[in-house]
Amino acid sequence: MIVLEHTYVEEARVFKALSDENRLMVLEMLQGGEKCACVLLCKLNISQPTLSHHMKILVDSGIVSARKEGKWTYYSLCESEGDRAATLLKQLTSSLSDDLAAATTGGKATRGCC
């Protein structure tokens, strides 16, 4: 099993950020570069408080960064955190895949009670 150096709280924030369709739409929009909150608001067709809620979750996860310019906030993807989230997911799912492969081929799983 791969040993992950992490805190579960930080990793849960990342997965929480990815677990909502509106936040996934925001991430997709930000793939094209930095966007003003007003642009996101128009494209998502949600209320401003709802957008603020979603953006706080994305920023707190580290996947998105925010900067203020006057009264507007501009958001962009933070590639290093996105890469970290992808690596984490790959590590978690690869160890599960290894255990499943061992179980189906008659080998011993790396964890479990039997």
What does this structure look like?
The protein is of the alpha+beta class. The chain has one domain: Arc Repressor Mutant, subunit A, CATH 1.10.10. Helix content is 60%, strand content 12%. The protein has five helices and three strands. It has helices at 8-17, 21-30, 37-44, 48-61, 79-104; strands at 35-36, 64-69, 72-77. The chain has a three-stranded antiparallel β-sheet. A hairpin with a 2-residue loop joins strand 2 (64-69) and strand 3. Helix 1 (8-17) runs antiparallel to helix 4 (48-61). The protein is elongated, with a radius of gyration of 18 Å.
Note the main attributes of this structure.
3-stranded antiparallel β-sheet, elongated, about 60% helix, alpha+beta, about 110 residues, single chain, Arc Repressor Mutant, subunit A
